[in-house]
Amino acid sequence: MKQKPPGAGKESLGTIDAPSLFTELDLSRTRIFLDLGCGPGKYSLEVLQHLSQEAMVIAVDLWEEGLRNLQESMKARDISRISPILADIGRGIPLKMDTVDVCLVANALHELILSKKNKEALREITRVLEPKGEPAVTEFKKVPGTGSPLHILIEANQLSDMVKSHGFRNVKVVETGPYNYLPIYRLEVNDAYGDH
Fold first, then answer.
1. pLDDT tens-place string over residues 13-56
2. Distance of CA 122 to CAs 18, 93, 135, 175, Å?
3. Contact at 8 Å (CB) between 47 and 24?
4. For the whole prediction, is pTM greater than 0.85?
5. How many helices (H) and strands (E) does the chain have?
6. 140: which strand partners?
7. In degrees, to the nearest 5, what angle opens at C-alpha 96 toward C-alphas 90 and 102?
8. Strand partners, 116
9. Which architecture does CATH list for 15-187?
């Protein structure tokens, strides 16, 4: 995609308590970590510090410049355990079913809602997650200072209502800084693509 997507390039890792985010996720047995809407890959690069040496990160975005920036960062740091993929996650994720242990969507779901691609993205997340996989959808709180217009941001209860129709059960909501929250979900059913 030549044109820059609306939310592309907005740095959100600096507004979040990254250690608390990654502590809440079950990364000890993670083999495949999927970073959807990765942009320049700040979260992809950060999560490597919390994964085993055998684990891989798949970083997906439709913003070509962001992926180029990630590839440059990987080259500068001699990193080979991140696989950048150019794709529109609102149209499909180019991965096989049941391949991902943890899927992170960091402050990007509200942009997918704006473009009416959230339902397909959530369906695809359900498809690619392992039966016991963990979806991590961190979002901005509806408070001033996030850099995004308040009217497009999602409250935690709205987000939970949105994802439960895709088989996710909300376990708890964790604050990951003054501007962010992380609902912890468990995948209860995954029958949209057959039994597991």
1. 777 888 888 888 889 889 999 999 999 999 999 999 999 999 99
2. 23, 10, 10, 22
3. no
4. yes
5. 6, 7
6. 180
7. 75
8. none
9. 3-Layer(aba) Sandwich (3.40)
